[in-house]
Each structure stands twice: as C-alpha cells, then as structure tokens.
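EI: anyone free to look at a 74-residue chain?
SC: sure, send it
EI:
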Amino acid sequence: MSNSNDAIEFQLSSEYIELIKLLKLLNLVESGADAKLAIEAGEVTCNGTVELRKRKKLISGDVVSFDDQEIKIL
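SC: here you go
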C-alpha cells in the first residue's frame, strides 16, 4: 500500500505540462488511452477537485492525485 506522505515531486522543464502527459511520463498508466479513460472516469484530482480535462495545463504549485499517489508540480 502506498504511503500518502510519499508524494512524487515533478520538476517542470517548461511553463506547464498537460495532465495526460504527466500520467504517461510518470508511468502511472500504461498508455495515453488509459490516462484518458482514468481522467474521464473522474479518477484524477487536481488541487483537491476532480479534473475531467485531459489536456489540463499543470503549473508549478499544482497537486495531482491519482491511484493513491500524490504528485506535486514544482
């Protein structure tokens, strides 16, 4: 079981990253299709709110939660 204190810290290399790309890049899903389905099913939150936009632009300070994993965008 994942420890909720073990957040992943993701350092941006540009101004933002799209939500679907973040999930794929961190290997939290097997494919873009899986990421799209998870987002559409309401399984992903951004800053505590369910996020249904797969191309949501994540910026420094955002916190994404998916599958008992927290990702902090730096």
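EI: DSSP finds two helices and seven strands in the chain.
SC: 👍
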